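Task 17 of the worksheet. Students: predict the tertiary structure of the chain below and write it out as structure tokens. Keep your answer in the requested format; marks are given for formatting as well as content.
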Amino acid sequence: QLQLVESGGGLVQPGGSLRLSCAASGYTDFYAIGWFRQAPGKEREGVSCISSRGGSTNYADSVKGRFTISRDNAKNTVYLQMNSLKPEDTAVYYCAATLGSCSKGQYNSWGQGTQVTVSS
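Model answer:
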């Protein structure tokens, strides 16, 4: 089971950018990695996911065209580049790993989360 650590969160103004990182303790080559977020008082939602080799990605409609997921398996790290941030993107962001596919896999490894706050 992978140990995941997120980093890169912070406070940013609307329209700004942040890059989140999800560093794994072991080899990520066989794992699809997803990014999720949870805002106060709301349910956790899927944001984006990338397949084990990086050949397939998906995004929530709310972030399409603004967020980009990528991975560097040599560094066992997955990134989430977030541009044109909006106040409604404010949430705790988590990464999670699954040996299955992005859409059907069971996510068994979760990071501790990193806070993203978009505010002027």
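Marker's comment: The first strand starts at residue 4 and ends at 7. The chain has a mean pLDDT of 95.
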